Every structure is written in C-alpha cells, then in structure tokens.
Amino acid sequence: MTKVCIVVPCFNEVRRLTLGPLRRMTAADVHLILVDDGSTDGTGPKLREFAAVLGGAAQVHALPKNLGKGEAVRHGLCLAIGVGAEIVGYLDADMSTPPEEALRLLSEIGRGNQDAVIGSRVALLGHDIRRSAFRHYFGRVFASAASLAVGLPVYDTQCGAKFFRVDDCFKDCVGDPFASRWAFDVELVGRIVGHPGRGRPAVVEEMPLRVWLDRGSSHLGFLAMLLSGLALIEIRRRLARFRRAR
User: Fold this and answer.
1) Looking at residue 196, what DSSP letter applies?
2) Long-range contacts for 169-178 (Cβ within 8 Å, ≥24 apart)?
3) With a cut of 50, which residues of the chain have pLDDT below it?
4) What is the pTM of this model?
C-alpha cells in the first residue's frame, strides 16, 4: 500500500521539467504519478527517463490524447486511489510550489482531521510569493466568483497544490469528468464540500504558502482564463445536480 501519492499533470513540459524537485518528493516517501496529457514535444520520453531514475517511487501514465489538465489530474487521482493511497493530491509540473512547501501541507493533513488541505498564494510579510500583477488581480476576481459557485469563502481556488484524504466520498468525487479543463479545482472542492455521504460537514483548510514562484510560460492564456470564468456557471449547475444525486 502506498500511503501518499501525488499527481503531476504534464502537457508539453519538456523545457520546464527537472528531476531535482521530483527526487526531493520521492525522498520523503511520496509516490509520484506523472501524467503525460498527450504531449507532442518529448515530454513523454523525459517522464519515462525520470521514472526510471526514481525507480518504483514514480510511474508514468500516458493519456492517448490531450484531455486538459482537469482530466489529467482526475485520471491520476483515480490511479493513486487504485494503488491504495491514503492521501492524494496534485502539483503543477513547473513546481511553482516547491517540494518543501508541498511536504509541509502534506504533513498538516497527515496529522490532522482535514478532508482537504489546499495551498493559497497570499502575499504576506516574511513570505516569498512571486506572481505577475495581471494574474494576481485576475485571480482575485475569479476566486470571488468561484467562492459564490461553491458557497465557500475560498481565497485562492487555482493554486496547483491540493491534497486530500481518501475515503469513499472522495472516491465518488473523482468518479465523473469535470466540466472545465482549467476550473476543475472549483468543481472538485465543491463536490467534496457538498457530498452528503460523510454525515458531517467536510473539513477543508486553506493554508497560505510561504514560497510560490511564478515560473512563466503557463499554458493558461487570456482566452482560457475567460472561458474558465464562464465555466463557473456550468460548474454551479453541475454541483447542484451532484448533491441531489447523492
């Protein structure tokens, strides 16, 4: 049984992928699932090379075509559940969230009672959060709209560092495809919070990151940002239907 398993979704990441951060994660007894989301730039061979170096601590899962980040993450999470992981999560391939920060959040959910711990990029004194002004302010608008969609005061829905405790409710939450390639985080958190199967409110904690570095070259362009905002309408509708069906 693998206790902790982290998914790293990858699409045309050959220039940003480095072995060092992955090695630091596996050195902390974290199993990695590296998902190649239909890349066309040599990402697949590089991931297989990394997995060979990391041995049994990492595996590559190749999707037959590009399905988008949401489905890449969901496929990876389902695989993680399949290998018996007790705690699962995902990180962006560029490791904007450094391994040390990811391990700090994992430690929190490992010793606490949270159903989910999600990273939050808050510029606080003593913290090193480097993010472009445009992405910061767009993110604030999007997060406000997303909070209304899921009915929670979430500060940062799109930070690519989220970790979850595996139970039957979580397995159900990742069973169906998401509505959006990019705003899937909102729907996933909404499913977890709205799932009635626990018989109690879900415990979701948002933790400010101490370090987050914008690596640039994001695949999320301006048009995709706008479409993600529009997707919140469909996500809200789907969440209402999801809750009724349980």
Assistant:
1) G
2) 169/115, 169/195, 169/197, 169/198, 169/202, 170/81, 170/88, 170/115, 171/81, 172/197, 172/246, 174/74, 174/77, 174/78, 174/81, 175/78, 176/242, 177/70, 177/71, 177/74, 178/70, 178/71, 178/74
3) 1
4) 0.91
